[in-house]
Amino acid sequence: MQRSSAPCLLAAALAAAFAAVLAVPAPALAYWQWRDANGHMVYSDVPPSTAAARILRAPGRHAGDFQPVQAAQPADAAMAAPAPAKASARPAAPTPEEAFQKRREASLKAAAEEARRETEAAERAVRCAQLRNYATGLQQGMRAAVAGPDGSLQHLNSEQRQAEILKTSANLEKHCH
């Protein structure tokens, strides 16, 4: 008696299809799809500012399921003449491309600011380490000198050393703690 391998192949194909469906991340499905005025297909994470009839896909809905909600108009309001436009009409909503560019600029600006802060922190850490080393050397009696008015080195005496230790300690307290 010979067995058919068709049920095994079918089960394997179904398992592969199921795994492929599960492999698509949920955020990848959260996008809008529509045709622009020129008939080109547009994909975005921001809803379109175009006519709702051109929308092909909206987040959380399957293709073709998007039905825009139309405001209910009372019967007498439908017959009335349209209201004149206000002088201070709201500005038009940004296009998806403009919204994307705005988000991108904000992201780049935030990244540049974070990089600037990290650079400043690293530079401050180096300066503080140098200042701590200098203070430790002064306290341990390291020979130190300052440049004189003519550019020559003048070694610190005990009074000048104490003044330099106090000044260095004050700078450490102010900038490194």
From TrEMBL:
The keyword Hydrolase applies. The keyword Hydrolase applies. Residues 99-116 have a biased composition (Basic and acidic residues). InterPro entries: Casein_CS (IPR031305). One of its GO terms (molecular function) is peptidase activity. Residues 77-96 have a biased composition (Low complexity). Keywords: Hydrolase, Protease, Signal. Residues 77-116 are annotated as: Disordered. GO terms for biological process: proteolysis. Residues 1-19 form the signal peptide. This is Membrane-bound ClpP family serine protease. It comes from Cupriavidus alkaliphilus. The lineage of its organism: Bacteria, Pseudomonadati, Pseudomonadota, Betaproteobacteria, Burkholderiales.
